[in-house]
Design a protein that fits this description.
With 360 residues, the chain is α+β, with helices and mostly antiparallel strands. 46% of the residues lie in helices and 16% in strands. It contains 13 helices and nine strands. The chain has helices spanning 12-23, 31-46, 49-64, 78-85, 110-123, 169-185, 192-197, 200-219, 232-241, 245-256, 293-305, 333-338, 344-358, and strands spanning 70-75, 101-107, 132-134, 147-155, 158-168, 260-261, 271-277, 282-288, 324-329. A hairpin with a 2-residue loop joins β4 (147-155) and β5 (158-168). α3 (49-64) packs across α5, α6 (169-185) packs across α10 (245-256) and α6 packs across α13 (344-358). The longest helix has 20 residues, at 200-219.
Length: 360
């Protein structure tokens, strides 16, 4: 079995073996083994490109039928893959990860989430026939709310897992704000291990996001976060009484205005390749027409190949300094801003909502 680039494809078992080496971490006496395992993991990730593209085509079809929706395509960054399988007290296997390939659909309401999930489940093969995780009906303890479909897509005579996330704008801006806070404070708040061990300031910040998530759920007439069920007045009082609320809002506010965005929106464009350099805080937007999907996917792959790999300290190219990329389907500038792989638009929306709760 060979992959699209002519190389022998990595099997799921071989990927799992490489993952065990990577999970042990980078050590001087095992540097050659680690580098070889990293190369295997990179190829395993690359093999998810075609099945994720197949999945994205269906997500695009769904998005076109839902007004104001935004669809995105991305592969999980290598550094994020390695960090996930290196989490202590977890048993993630590289070959079994469900989210190396990912598509996302952002809509306006939970009713649209249900409609999209039903349509996609009928038009995509789900893992084990029924892999549907509804974190809106049953929010996670962290406050995370979204709907996940885990797909099993055939490619190269094998099957690959691709995750499709469907969420509302409120759910999306909450998740983005949590990621932004993680970068600001140097703590991976999305990690279950980090949350389980959190104390002091980290524990209070996590409580802040749980309260806000329950307020958002209340606004959407949806189930609230376990342990944070209450009416509007009670939850707002808890938010005001939390001693970190103002500092979290202030730190998020300081972060949202730091990214320069290239203004390249064209009237005929509906697909956009967003490329972010965090070091220079520059976001480049490369537009494509809707009928240029194949070229847009090719360019996404080319940019991804330049992103630095963890553990080797070198980049495959010096022509870009990008360290994040996402391909987006959007029909106007406002929709495109929702999908930016930085925090400006979504965190600003989050801040406006939370500050609105806190007004007398």
């Amino acid at each position: 079995m060979t992959s699209d680039n002519g190389m022998s494809s990595i099997s799921r078992n071989r990927a799992n073996s490489a993952g065990r080496v990577l999970s042990a971490g980078f050590h001087r006496d095992t540097v050659s083994d680690y580098v070889r395992a990293l190369a295997v993991a990179q190829q395993w990730r690359s093999q998810h490109v075609n099945p994720t593209e197949q999945c994205f085509a269906k997500v695009l079809d769904c998005s076109k039928s839902i007004s104001r929706s935004v669809a995105t395509f991305r592969l999980k960054r290598m550094i994020s893959i390695v960090r996930k399988i290196q989490r202590p007290s977890t048993h993630f296997k590289l070959g079994e990860l469900d989210d190396i390939g990912g598509c996302r659909l952002i809509v306006e309401s939970n009713e649209q989430v249900r409609h999209a999930a039903s349509w996609l489940a009928s038009n995509l093969p789900l893992k084990n026939g029924s892999a549907d995780k509804d974190y809106i009906a049953r929010p996670q303890d962290s406050g995370y709310r979204s709907r996940h479909l885990l797909c099993s897509i055939a490619s190269d005579s094998a099957s690959y897992h691709v995750e499709v996330q469907i969420r509302t704008r409120l759910q999306h801006c909450w998740s983005t704000a949590v990621e932004a806070a993680g970068e600001i404070y140097g703590t991976e708040y999305k990690s279950p291990v980090v949350r389980a061990d959190a104390d002091g300031d980290d524990e209070r910040r996590l409580r802040f996001f749980k309260i806000v998530s329950s307020l958002f759920a209340l606004e959407e007439h949806a189930p609230q976060v376990p342990g944070f069920v209450g009416d509007y007045t009670t939850l707002v009082r808890q938010l005001r009484d939390l001693d970190c609320t103002r500092s979290v809002l202030g730190d998020l506010n300081a972060a949202v205005d730091s990214v320069f965005i290239a203004d390249t929106l064209e009237a005929s464009s509906e697909l956009f390749l967003l490329k972010l350099s965090r070091e220079s805080q520059y976001l480049d937007v490369e537009p494509f027409r809707a009928d240029e999907l194949e070229e847009a996917l090719r360019r996404y792959d080319a940019v991804e190949r330049h992103i630095e790999l963890p553990g080797d300290g070198t980049s495959t190219s010096d022509e870009t300094g990008y360290d994040n990329a996402v391909l987006v389907y959007a029909r106007d500038a406002e929709q495109l801003a929702i999908a930016y792989p930085n925090y400006s638009t979504n965190v600003r929306f989050f801040l406006d909502k939370v500050n609105g709760y806190l007004e007398p």
